[in-house]
């Protein structure tokens, strides 16, 4: 018998026009194997309601067509069920889809849906809110809040907010308990708890994170100054952040965090205000997800945001090196100019 797939399309997510999506689905999904149902969401939370009905009726697969917010809405209704999560990435960041190395083009993503290779993967919960990619507090939550009210979507808006606000942000102090072990208080620019490796747009906050290892990766980014900022940005985009002197990394299943005051947190990029005390826990292999069986055979090329970050931070890094040279060797430039003048006079 044919298996049923329900495509849940968020028409307002990201920057991609969804009007042609039904035709693309009809053209590329193998109708000899699957019966197709296509539903457009009509309001916030609608995707969760549709996905919940899919789980109740034991639909084979529910496919989130949208960004990280849509994926989160669909996924949280499929947890602990036999209905698998599929993803057609059409958002601004596509963090979970990129971690799973799904194609960023619709045709390629639909081909992965046809293969229907399904793995049981981990997810996390922060103060009752499920997340499948990352959650966090501090600067990344602050930026998520800025991005949510920016008025326009897209990676350039994210970059603009990061650069505009980053050096003005005041770090906070956090007390952490990891699997019952109390750590020293940490003054942090941000704390990210990662089930998957990246925020989105190939910005890798936890390069070593796995969705199958039974642990969450806790990433503490310490405060840094103007001269150190470029290298942090380069490491974020180059999968080397875990090697930075400004980063402390831990793995845990249960995490308690206490901060000095209530404030914004985010889960999969959605900001929400929570209290001083935060509880994060792992659910091991508790959601079924369609994965890319060809992922290891393909090496993803740098995307536009990664290229822009690298270019920007490399330029700033060059400027920083010039400043450092001036500070460390104040007479070097004078000597160089003097030698040049002497050679001309000679």
Radius of gyration based on Cα positions: 23 Å
Structural class: alpha+beta
Give the tally of β-strands.
Answer: 17
Low-confidence stretches: none
What does it look like?
This protein has 346 residues and is of the alpha+beta class. It has ten helices and 17 strands. The chain has helices spanning 21-28, 46-56, 68-78, 95-99, 106-115, 139-148, 155-165, 229-237, 304-328, 332-345; strands at 3-9, 34-40, 61-66, 84-89, 118-126, 129-131, 134-138, 172-178, 181-182, 186-188, 190-194, 216-221, 247-252, 254-259, 263-267, 270-274, 277-290. Strands 5, 6, 8, 9, 10, 14 and 17 form a seven-stranded antiparallel sheet that branches. The protein has a six-stranded antiparallel sheet with strand order 13-12-11-7-15-16. The protein has a four-stranded parallel sheet with strand order 2-1-3-4, sandwiched between helices. Helix 3 links the parallel strand 3 and strand 4. The chain is globular. The protein starts with a strand and ends with a helix. The model has no long low-confidence stretch (mean pLDDT 85).
